[in-house]
TrEMBL record:
The chain holds residues 463 to 745 of 745 of the full protein. Transmembrane segments: none annotated. It comes from Undibacterium rugosum. This is EAL domain-containing protein. It comes from the Bacteria. Residues 24-277 form the EAL domain.
């Protein structure tokens, strides 16, 4: 009996995989087409200083609107873009677009300290990555001091020569580095101490669990770790006043989340900033 069942489930498994592979191929084709047809765009989520509520920056987040008008979240296509290599040109486009937007904001008299951009490890380890960053800065005219790159801890790059080389080159240019989703992945504490990192980003999962008994412990630990190492600490996924209050009490410096502001289209963010100046959110 067990043999039949095993064979049966194996057949089901392979058939399902076949469909998934075909679906993935279609999705990949659509993604390439969407990129060519400029159906990808960026939204920007505000970041604030927890003590003052002051608007200090924003994170660029990619979006894909399909032909059917449906929104496909980045978790559904970034891994695919990484796998196919499209992430390299996609990432370069994100970098340029966000830098140009930041300069547009500055020209409009809105001057947040930084624009944060997510960089895939596949993109980060490319030989010409630093060159691409330089080009985006030169072409847009953005001062490197205002650019922050968010990278995730990853077994595939951490500890490699190119990872360290690129971090040092970015630092030399005056660009800031944040470790995204900190605490969820492969963490090597030694690189935090010796490599030029500016900021730790507490993952949303640890902010969500602040509400549960014993839940704040990880957020507290990351905050203390960051402070001890002289790094800034920012929390993502702040959804309530309580999240804000507790993170502030722990000593976390900055934050972003739906309670503060959702990811917004360019002009909506400008409107949000104006509204903030008129009537700041409580802190
Ligand atoms: P991430 O960099 O950790 O970004 C934070 C995610 O949390 C975003 O999801 C944001 O919309 C969401 N978020 C922020 N505040 C809240 C909140 O209060 N509640 C909830 N429920 N969610 C909140 P999003 O935009 O779907 O992006 C998911 C991930 O996709 C990002 O995680 C990042 O890893 C990746 N990603 C997004 N844009 C890019 C990009 O341009 N390039 C690369 N390589 N990756 C990107
Ligand atoms: Mg991020
Ligand atoms: Mg994050
Ligand atoms: Mg995250």
């Amino acid at each position: 009996r067990s043999k039949t069942m095993q064979r049966g489930s194996f057949t089901v498994f392979t058939r399902k995989m076949g469909i998934e592979i075909r679906e993935r191929a279609t999705l990949m084709q659509n993604l390439h087409r969407a990129f060519d047809a400029e159906r990808l765009f960026l939204m920007y989520q505000p970041q604030i200083e927890l003590n003052s509520g002051r608007f200090i920056g924003m994170e660029a987040l990619i979006r894909w609107r399909s032909d059917e008008g449906e929104m496909i979240p980045p978790v559904d296509f970034i891994p695919l873009a990484e796998y196919s290599g499209l992430i390299v040109s996609l990432g370069a486009w994100v970098l340029r677009t966000a830098c140009f937007y930041m300069v547009r904001l500055q020209k409009a008299g809105i001057a947040p300290l930084r624009i944060a951009i997510n960089v895939s490890v596949v993109q980060f380890r490319q030989e010409d990555f630093i060159l691409n960053v330089k080009k985006a800065l030169d072409d847009s005219g953005l001062n490197p001091q205002h650019l922050e790159l968010e990278i995730t801890e990853s077994v595939t790059v951490a500890g490699t020569a190119i990872f360290e080389q690129h971090l040092h080159a970015l630092k030399k240019m005056g660009i800031q580095i944040a470790i995204d989703d900190f605490g969820t992945g492969f963490s090597s504490l030694s690189y935090l101490d010796k490599l030029p990192v500016d900021r730790l980003k507490i993952d949303r999962a640890f902010v969500t669990q602040i509400d549960t008994p014993g839940g704040p412990r990880i957020a507290e630990l990351i905050t203390q770790l960051g402070r001890k190492l002289g790094l800034a600490v920012i929390a993502e996924g702040i959804e309530t006043q309580q999240h804000w209050d507790k993170l502030k009490a722990m000593g976390c410096h900055e934050g972003q989340g739906f309670f503060i502001g959702r990811p917004m289209l360019e002009d909506d963010l400008i409107a949000w900033v104006a509204q903030q100046q008129a009537k700041p959110i409580s802190c």
